[in-house]
Amino acid sequence: MERAREAQEHEGERDGAGRRSATAAFALELLVHGVGGTTPEEMLGDPRTVRITGDWTAAVYRRADDADAERRPEDYRGRPVPEAYVWCNLTSGNSARALWLLLLPFMVANLAHWMRPTTTGRPRTVRLYGLIVRLLGLTLTVLLVAAACEVALDLGAWQCAGTRACAARHPWLGFLSPAGADAGWWSLPGRRLALAALVPMALTLLLWYLSHRTWSAYESQQPVSRTAEPGEEEHRTALGRPGFWYGRRLVARLRAAHTAAGLLTVAAALGSAAARHDRRHGAVALQSLGWLVASALLAGAVAVVWVVCSRGRTEQRLDQDLDRRLVRWLPWGALAVLLLTMVYAGWSRPGWRSAGRLPGDTTFGALALVQGALVVALGIVAHVLHRARPDTRTAMRGQAGPAVAMLACALGGVMSGGVAQRVADWLDGTGQAMAGPPVVLTWQASTIPPLLLVLLVLSGWLAWRTRLLRRAETGAVERDHPGEPGDPARTLRIASTRALAALTDRAPLVIGLMSAVTLVLGAVALVGAFAANDTPEGAARGTGPLVRGAAETAQGLGSWLIGVGFLLFVTWGRRAYKDASARRTIGILWDVGTFWPRAAHPFAPPCYAERAVPDLTWRMAAWTGTTGGRLVLSGHSQGSVLAAAAAWQLGPSARKRVALLTYGSPLERLYGRWFPAYFGPASLSSLHREVDCWRNLFRRTDPIGGPIGLPGDCGPQVDRPPLRDPLAYGRTKEHPLPAPILGHSDYQADPAFDEERRRLLARLRSGLPGPRPADAPAGPEPAEPDSGPGKARPGPGT
């Protein structure tokens, strides 16, 4: 019996070894689509697909005929098994994604965190850079909640409900008005403010809920847990660290801090109004209670700043600690302070009447001053880091992060000012009954016309440069097609497409100039608001007609523009909520802006890469570990960025079994320049050394994709020479109809795609382990694999 059992075990082992050797003989082709998404049917070129693994949010699909490929590896000799990873529902799924438009300033601030210049050493300076961005993100949360307080407490409960004419125009405010016929318990100023405080409190709790919901769905996806191989730690890049794509602990800490900051902001707005009255006319008991509230607010603010300053995360391992006491008790403590402040403000104070504005000028002015100081400090730190290791390819010489942070503050200011201005206009139709929003918001709105004027001049200069480049490209197009009948109109279209695609490389100039102008105009608005203590129109009284006319025009046009911008913003969000195509467009925006983890702001839209990168890594590690086979990782556009990030997460031995094919890739053109610390030349070179082979395809007509610029191991360069676009200049036998200008799409339509794909698959099958020297000539064209029945070819949707 024992001998028979041993014989069966040996026979099973031989069968298993045979199956493993057979499966190792074929390859897997894993396709990853780009921005905008697609369907698995389009990616695989087959209407019959099945989900292999994953859920309705993100999953891996195969053709129905290939679902059991591992059980019959002999059927796939000479051809790969195609798979498609579809992740578009991570960013453009249900209609709730439209609400993410409200989080746009937070997303932009989070991008600034990852735009740190690359450097060697200087760990304290690197930590200081991250600290400044986190503090800047905290000010954005306070700004948003302060804007809600301005609308609900100041404009609604204090000014409109406290004014007879305004309250008469809005009957729903009658129970809050002391002059109304049904004036009652809620008509006292403090109680009106306490009731109105529920609006910004609800907004803060909504942000907490959205962040917690997405945190449970995105940050909770654990990356592959594995043991580091010998020597791996010495050469590991930032994106290859085990805990890089697992920000669960950091987001939980920041969410608790920002939620507490929002609640404390509401308490400060509510308590300051009551304390201002008590300092003049209040009883001793109320003054004492006011000091208690102020002390609690100060203690809460110190706790929030401490939590934000202490990063509380490590990327060197999977950090499972959630700091549950801190995450739980900090928001609850802030809520208790807010409830105490409501009781304090709602206390009866005879003789207290609403007049003028609440102290909003001080609040918004202080926020603008702090944000400006933080942006300047961030610029100094970024300069120090960039100077330690200068790189000519880095966008704006390392100042991309501060410039983007300035734009985040500007977006927050426009949104808060737009809300306040539109609500004030709606409540006070005559423009005479209410004092209106804070003066500093009016000054900030008045800076929009000169900012748009600068943008208009810059657009004119770019148009002129594009025209010159189009003229140069016209000659290049003619030289690319010698001996063919000339077609001036088609030549002009091709040259125009190339010239417009080159505008992407001008983005650093545009963003840098607009950020600098925004910083200067913001400083002018701040000085003007506090020096004149009046609106621009009021400050210009008594001056010459030219200055007075310019001030009146800037104030009126700025107020109109900020109102129109806010209405367009709301309209776009409403349309996206109802229209799937508009929601898909917003999803494309998030595809680009939410690749990075939420390291600076917890209320930013969630990072889809914290789900997509572990998905891809798990799939590649599981497949190579189970079958012993090799695979081609094929990524288009943003999919190439996900592919590179997933390849970094693999162990060195598994990474050597992967060949990388990228096309329309922004890895160097966008990510390498704007995020040099993570996709700079050193990081891309390490990826190139560690994968089996890497080939990259790009076009001159592509505004997103570009060359990688590295020497190759399966050819002289990683980059294939620029693909022809269009494939045919005129009508030919192969293209009897005019060939389209493809730009960023349909790379699979070019014969070069199949050629490079065949080359990579042939290299994987041959088992060539080592890289070829950079100066070695390319080998002969490998024979095309046997197509066999039902050979898969990727569809045009990727």
Description:
This protein is mainly alpha-helical and 798 residues long. It is built from 27 helices and seven strands. Among the domains are: 2-91 and 608-766, Rossmann fold (3-Layer(aba) Sandwich), CATH 3.40.50; 190-221 and 248-351. The chain has a seven-stranded mixed β-sheet with strand order 2-3-4-1-5-6-7, with helices on both faces. A hairpin with a 4-residue loop joins strand 2 and strand 3 (59-63). Helix 10 runs antiparallel to helix 11 (324-345), helix 14 (439-446) packs across helix 19 (545-578) and helix 15 (448-480) packs across helix 16 (488-501).
Please give the order of strands in the largest beta sheet.
2-3-4-1-5-6-7
What is the second-level CATH architecture of the domain at 2-91 and 608-766? 3-Layer(aba) Sandwich
Shape: globular
Percentage of residues assigned to helices = 55-70%
In terms of structural class, how would the helical and strand content be classed?
A: mainly alpha
Cα(first) to Cα(last) distance is: 57 Å
Number of helices: 27
